[in-house]
Amino acid sequence: MDEFDSLTEAVFLVMPRAEAVVNRIKRKGKRGSLLTGGDHFKFDGFQQLTDVNEPWEATEIRHALFNKEWSLISSRIENVMLSMNTMVLSAIYDFVEKAYTQKMTRTVMPIQELPTGLIFAGINIPDHDLLFQQLAQILAAPTSPMIDTELSLDIPMETTQKNVNNKVVILQSKDCINLKAALKSMIQQFLGLNMDGAINSLESGLKLQNHDMFVLEQWYRSLCTPQEEKVANQQRQPTLVVIIQDFESFDQDTLQDLVTICSNYQDRIPFVFLMGLATSIDALHQGLPKSVLSLMQTRKFQMQQSSECLTAIIEDLFMHGNVSVMIGPLPMKQLIDQFMHYNFSVSGFVANLKYIVMHHFYANPLSILCDRALSSQSRALELLEVGHYDHIRMLPSFQRYVESKVEVDPQEGEMLLLDNEFLKLQIPDMVRDLQEYHRNFALVFEFLWFLQARFTIAILKKSKRALYFMALEGTLTDSTSISFLLNLVRKMNSNEMMIFIEDCLQFFKKSSRCRPKASVEEGNIMDKELLILQNIRDRMVELLGDISDDSVTSSSDVEDGDQEMKEGDDTEQNEEATQMKDSDRWALANGGTSKRVLNRQETAGAPIFIKKRKLVSVKANVAEGRQTRIAKKTRETVRIPKGALGTYTVLVTEVVDLFERLFKTYLSHHSIMPLHEVFYYSQIKIQQKAFLPQPRVSIQTALGQPELYLNCKCCQVPSNTAAFISPAEMVLSTQHDTCILYKLYVECGRMINMYDWFTAFGMILERGTQSDNQQDRSMSNGDESNTLAHKRSKKRGKVSMAAKSKSLKEQNLDQKEVQARFISGVAELQFMGFIKPTNRKTDHVQRLTWGNI
Amino acid sequence: MANPLHREKLHHSFPGRAKQIDQILSFMGKPTAPTPPALFINGNSSLGKTSVVKAILSTVLGDTSPSHYAFLDCIECHTPRLIFEHAIYQFRHPPSVRWRYPADLHSQQQADQIMDGYAHAQHTAEADQSGSGSSRSSSNEDGSSPSQDPQMSDGSGRKDIDTGTTLVKNGEGRRKRKWIQDEIITSGPPTWDKCENINEFVEWCRRICADGNDGQGHASIHAKGSAYSEEQRQRKGQHDTRYLVLDRAERLRDNAPTLIPVLMRLQELTGRNICVIFITSIVWEKFRSKNGGYEPIIMNFPQYSKGETIAILERDLPEGQDKELYMRFVDLVYNVFQRNCKDLNEIRHLVALLFPLYIKPIKEGKIQKHEGLKLHRHIQAYFVEAMDKLYLREISSTEWVDRTLLTSSGSFKSKHGGTLGESLIARSSSEAAKDERALMNAVDIQNTFDLPYFTKFILIASFLASYNPPRLDLRYFAKVSNQGGKMSKRSKVAAAKKHGHEQLGTKLRQQLLGPKTFPIERMLAIFYSILDEEVEENVNVHTQIASLVSLRLLQRVTPMDKLDSIKCKCNVSYDTIKAIAKSIKFDIDRYLYDFA
């Protein structure tokens, strides 16, 4: 152990020695695995799981699956994040682009202002690193980020063709403690860009200082001149973009001066500033004085709120079931809580997620099955060992599945339990069922969201994330929000109902799940549902067509028959009109839906019918709408053919029933699916330990119960101690000095007398040596009440006790050694923040912590 | 000097500054005349101090001897060394050669330099025949610092060649030209001279003055100094005054306080004709050091009168606009804003932004030009808005232009009573399709920011800790066991009264005194007390405190290297904290002592 005997190093990395690994493999060598010792770290520390006698190959598969899964997840997250901010990023790009070209067209200002973009990027500053790096890349790139997206709205083609020439630097507050450092950082970054033909005055032998703006000016001029010679004159002069990443952390005076200087140079060097603000515009107004503010021409850019990013990520990954590893309700709650409660940090969320995925594949032998592409030919199935099957059979979901099987087909149930080969054949089917469940879930969940968005009523409106979380917990199907929504559907008037059903059809048709072609071979369930819905639609079209014809004749009846009714109608008519308006506006607001509205009007059949009905009589509409309501309220009957009313309500009920059934079946909890444990990660403890660390608790446990950490034999609690004393309260002489001191410390008051502490410490050590000497004696004086007694008595008669103990100690313990150990222990406690020296009483220290967590 | 042409031109371009210009010109006198050692120009911001001095120097010296003055900004030159080196560089290199690159001396550039050489021959020749040079001052008509535009002076240099060749007839001229050509070939591109302390600087000043020329002699001052006869040197303007201008000189007090007395007597120290001009917005008394020193000649730039302001604004008349209408508008703006805003640039800024709005109905044909009252009523609402937002730069000029000029005339018409903001909201909803605009407007409206849930509580706890006296913590935050909850409001009021305070109105209310510092531990105790749910202590709470500090919502009072007993202040206004508390349904008023 000599190699670990160092005065300077505290931590050592001990790599497993090659022989040891080889030995272990030799032991397992029976299985014919051909791995040598050097491969231990090949799998990033993934190890063979011994409880199932896993072959190396299975470990390999788990490792590969993890890598595949994680790269999928991280690339999806990146895409989501990028697409969330595309709009803003391209707006910023545009801003920088036009900062100096558009000047001429604008109103001529008396003072040339410095173009400054204010980027509100959310309060989590560590996340900004990535964001601003992305931004810098985009700005420095020759083309706008909009080109490859459809979002390019009003950027004319010329701007994209023009060779844009932005030079970008990022200033961070840590590099800019004062003006000198800030200028230096800025200039050096610009010069470091290594442009062709540019002159770096710092390197060319001139004795310039590296924070002199002169250097930058010279560099910039040299950058511009050769270009004018070479390239056509249209070439724009490069714009220098300075990104101030964390405005709030900057020294405000430095920033003021920096802005003033750059604004002075603006006639020679075109600067554009981009400032990242984490809070609000107030920070800018607080931080900079009026004279500086008036030098800037600000424009604000709002980045996507990080909570929306989180929702988008969860939606993309889990709601749509795009990945194999799903997150169970508990870890999901923890993930979201940590995000919402503590930091709003997307990168933190991603790190946490990675940990989960890693852990899922690391310790779970069944995770070799966690593959979406699992088929009966998969290698993973062949590698299953007896232990694996046992694990599968121990899964609660599998047990339930078998129980349900037994009722139907006892033979098969038995086979599942006893025949490994049979089980192996069944596994791919189960996995496929689970995938199917995910896909259906995604569609129906989307439909639920669509349904909720349909109604403008604010109560009971839930965020997508909240709804998904309910589904994970299994409370969604019985929740009030669904029944409430269905009630709203019931209350729709016929006109709305038609539109609504049309929209629903469109919705289902649009989704990829319901393509008729796919249905032929796979027997898609969703298509059946679609057919049912279509059927209802057709019948309703027919029925309502009839009614409208009828109501032309009956409308006069309604009019002369019931005056009161007419008034009611009028009001309702208005109501309806406003409702229509609302829905229209809503439709307009969502660009996508507006298209759908248009589609609807163009498609044959129902729309024509709607138009016709509108022409025929609005009154009939109203009466009809009222009809449905009346049917429920049973107020008064209106003179409308009773037969039609009956069929209509039947149809409405059918629709509602269909929806209810859809939600019930497809949004059911994932736990009904067998083998769901393979895909759903549901542990929480290990994640908590890693991402919600509680340092104080760990330190206190370590000091109070060191045996938990050290796992040593010597500190076992003597068997004859009273049961009511918990091990944490015991002071054992075998424990570490600091632990002993800590335990004595816990008993003290606000001020601790060093001498008392020292003598108590000495007593315990002494007792240890005594008991060592007289091991055959009873160890009854080892308990803690005894120590206290000693200590208390000591306080009364210090001198006599000290003399006595001294004589005792001389026999066994060296007084100096005790003192040295005492001092080192106290120093450690002080270092950990338990005590601090005080001036109030000279030989005392102050206690700083209270309460035991 | 007081060349009448110069004078007239300057007077013309700076209305209301004739007296100051005359004063400065008379201080300068002839090129060789002795000047006061230091001139101290003070006055409020945007009274034309800098531009007047710049214009005078460039008009008077720009053509003849552009390297006889150095113009430094003390914000940029934030260390003495930077001041010295920039000054020397400007003294030694006339603007036209300042941007030669030392690395690549292509033939073309060399040729350019020779051209410059001609130009300089020209300049010096003109200096000799003082007076004739004034005719060329028209090439720099606008007086905008030629020192910053090498291309321009390059151009003028080339232009001069013709006349230069005519001058070559003069034997003296020929000799000089020859000398300069030699000089260029031997000396090469401009150099940067290192100068670290005031002694070196004084030495440099002596040399530069002795050098006597526009800095074409670089590498070997001594060699050159001895190479030419006394007579030549004199002719080259050895006794011409050099001007060192220090703009925003108030910065010197922080950056280089010891430098001020030295600069005051730079003339005495160097024994050369150097005049230091300080330009600052604060009074001389604030510059005086305890040890005493030379008193400079103090010149004050007074506020512009109304007539002068309007005369200046008149010069901003946009092209192609009716002058009478514009002047009426300027008059109006001046009358409206002059009470709040003395800053000329600010008024110019407002005029530039508001004038297009003023004439908009005329362009649209709604209001006739002569209907002054109608126009006035029309612009009134914008004035209110501008006073509110634009003046405080809550809206920047571009945003303002975007917002106002794009406002559809329909919503604009309906808005006579209401403010601009309302109409904008109406507009934004109507034009939701234009997402980019909508995006911008959303930013305008959204002036708050979101915080994580517990962070909000931490911030509230800090606010409470900052504004509540610690002695009342027990009453506010201790959980009373028999009631099972916190104290009722009444008993809290009673508790407050017991301590001899009125509920409100004491002069030493913390609300009026501002936030007090508090130890982090106290804040954490309050935090755990106001939280309804049990939260285990973990690292995140502490990282959130740190991130609040970096967001400047909390202000750390103890230095960063002190790790225990950290103290902070809450740096958040009552309104903000109220909004935050409302967002998490926390009734903060219940817990605040002596607050309104």
TrEMBL record, chain A:
Region (Disordered): 550-584, 772-812
GO cellular component labels: DNA replication preinitiation complex; nuclear origin of replication recognition complex; nuclear pre-replicative complex
The entry's keywords: DNA replication, DNA-binding, Nucleus, Phosphoprotein
A Gene Ontology molecular function term of the record: DNA replication origin binding
Domain Origin recognition complex subunit 3 N-terminal span(s) in chain numbering: 3-369
Regions of compositional bias (Polar residues) in chain numbering: 772-788
Segments forming domain Origin recognition complex subunit 3 insertion: 387-526
Pfam families: ORC3_ins, ORC3_N, WHD_ORC
Domain Origin recognition complex subunit 3 winged helix C-terminal: 696-850
Cellular compartments annotated: Nucleus
Family stated for the protein in its record: Belongs to the ORC3 family.
Name assigned to this protein: Origin recognition complex subunit 3
Lineage, opening ranks: Eukaryota, Fungi, Fungi incertae sedis, Mucoromycota, Mortierellomycotina
Automatic annotation (TrEMBL), chain B:
Pfam families hit by this protein: AAA_16, ORC5_C, ORC5_lid
Keywords of the record: ATP-binding, DNA replication, Nucleotide-binding, Nucleus
Domain Orc1-like AAA ATPase as annotated: residue spans: 14-88
UniProt domain Origin recognition complex subunit 5 C-terminal: residue ranges: 451-592
Domain named ORC5 lid: residues: 326-385
Record's compositionally biased regions (Low complexity): 130-147
Major subcellular site: nucleus
InterPro entries: AAA_16 (IPR041664), ORC5 (IPR020796), ORC5_C (IPR047088), ORC5_lid (IPR048866), P-loop_NTPase (IPR027417)
GO cellular component: nuclear origin of replication recognition complex
GO molecular function: DNA replication origin binding
Region described as Disordered: 120-174, 217-236
Family affiliation: Belongs to the ORC5 family.
Protein known as: Origin recognition complex subunit 5 C-terminus-domain-containing protein
Organism: Lobosporangium transversale
